[in-house]
Here is the input.
Amino acid sequence: MLLLIPLLPFLGFVINASLGRRMSKSLSGGVACLAMIAAFAVSVAAVMRMLGDSSGAVQQDVYTWIASGRLNIPFSLRVDHLSAVMILVVTGIGSLIHIYSTGYMHDETDGEYARYFSYLNLFGSFMLVLVLGANFPVMFVGWEGVGLCSYLLIGFWFRKKSAADAGKKAFIVNRIGDFGFVLGMLLIFATFGTLDFQQVAAAADTRAIEPAMGVMTIATLLLFLGAAGKSAQIPLYVWLPDAMEGPTPVSALIHAATMVTAGVYMIGRNAVLFSHAPTTLAVVAAIGVATALMAGTIGLVQNDIKRVLAYSTVSQLGYMFLAMGVGAYAAGIFHLYTHAFFKALLFLGSGAVIHALAGEQDLRNMGGLKKYVPVTYWTFLIGALAIAGVPLLSGFFSKDEILFRTYTSSNPSAKLLWTVGAITSLLTATYMFRLVFLAFHGERRHDVPVETSHGAPAADPHDPSSHPEEEEPAAHRAGAHASTSLGTGGHGDRHGDVHVHDAPPSMAIPLIVLAIGSVVAGYVGVPHALGGSNRIESFLEPSFEVSESARRTETLAAQAAPPREPEGVRAVSAQREPQGSESGEHASSPELTLMLISSGIAIAGIGIAMYFWRWNRPAADDMARRLHGAYNLLLHKYYVDEVYDSAIVQPIKLISTGGLWKGVDAGLIDGAVNGIGEAIRAGSGILRRLQTGSMRTYAASLFLGVVLILGWYLFRS
Amino acid sequence: MVPLNHYLVLSGLLFAIGTAGVFLRRNLITVLLSIEIMLNAVNLTFVAVGRYLNTVDGQIITFFVMTVAAAEAAVGLALVIALFRHRETLNPDAFTSLKW
Here is the structure.
């Protein structure tokens, strides 16, 4: 049954990849959506079964994948509480985004449309393998698979150079992380002799917590490098903003809701292991919070609507890593789950805006869209409120939980982490509402670039296909060009400015569903301080501990071994205590205080945005002028791309061209090969002179040879 | 009885004469004749040593050498005729085109 979950989208991929060219759009889109929705249904059924099961997990060993000596890796899929949340998020939000895509990608040709959906289904399949995998190698298959799909989808409009480049960048940066992941995986196998998550956790649990450095710390740091690559953290976050070259639903699905959270999920999956390496946790928390702050500040000044959201995603992922780093795994996963809703909503909303404006992504050319795209506006506003952390929306609960856990964590610099997190929270609210005000409020600024020459007034805004495609070849070409180069409907061009249209139903329904989700998703985790029961934390908690069955087998094995274990176990439970039981009896007054503070911060952030970009626009420009240096620094994203370029890319290019290509390859290898050839040719040139053609010379050499041989035999003694 | 050494000296002389002929003469037919002289010098050695050792092996091998010499003379002369038809000369130094 579990196998069916990734297999259904894979089936959709196979159908669309092999037959897509000959299928109509509605058929290939329908197949893709159906595959994803079916996977969602099976996931729900699987989760139901898992909840009914007393062991709290359902595992399916499909077959023995690799068996070689000590190494025995079954292809196992496993649903426990943690992966249950993930598969529901992936298939649920994935389905909505599939449905949205049928509207968004409608201007592609049939073949391209099917190609898009085949990639999207393939992505779903790999993502489900990733979260369902019961051991590292199976997870790694999914891990690499989603990386591949990410590459394919970022570069979906591969005729556009920047899109192809962005795809390559994402792929290569992810390779660096994957390198760490593989090394960590091998180190874990070398240390524990197993790659099964459960057994690794049980084996790690028998060890004492490593004080500073040790094999578990190194292994977890390597794993974290992998997580940083996939989840876009410092220093490997640079690919995610560029990934916005892909179609917007892809950004929503892969680069906001699901794939980029794989790193967070992986750390949650190995929570026991990470808990035994406090040094790693400190690193994770520090990098998480630094990324959150850095990306938040960059997001403040970007002008591309999708880039703002991309930096916001990086920033929110930083929050999740902060939670992981302070040992609040459940809070991190909770934020992952709520973030999936509101960030998918925001991306889809921005997609609807871009769609309505025929590919316009620059915030400076938007404005006043509120009355033209009401559905988009209201849903987007809900998403923005949720991410800003306005009380009683989902983002508030999860972000607050993270900040609270950070504040009360045992991390020596907990207060500093909390302060930075709170500042980032302020930034989040500010840049999100800057986006809202620039795009939806104020006067319209998008009239200028819109083509008005023919202004076909009768076009129905809800049906792009009704536009006069054949009537004006030139306009049609322009439209087709816009749809390939900008990735959205070229038909907007032909609307004339009065026909900025709201999302068609296929796009509006997912928006509305996600908006509802963004509001209510947080209520599974209402904290105790507010009289809730924080159900999601108690639901997830078992996944971050050693499961009973694994612990039993491990203690049986350990009884034979020297009994160093009890001390370790006690240390672990002591460490775990603050997370597990604290939420129950912890004095709720600081939590309430913190909650008030962060609510205040959210509202203050919105207020700042309102002042600068709603009421007093010149003040924002004035500020940008006065803080000229800082503004430019942020606008150029701290020049990180430039620094990487000159510190890593250019030296590598230089070494590759000057050293490896011209030195080693052309000089050494080609030199050796050509040198041998030349030497032989030169030697032969000399030797061939022996063949004179003169019979007499041959006879003389023959004679000389005979004389020499005979002479040698005669005089050797 | 003529002692063995005389035969060997004579055959050495004949062989040297033949060798000198091969190297020094400028006529292919003479070169062929010189080769015959060398062969016969060897034949003489075989026969002399055979008689000295009281076996017939030397005489038997001499017959083989004579057979080969006859065949060689036939092929050699045929080649010489062919070469002469080709180049109108019998000087071996004229035929050096068979090289790189």
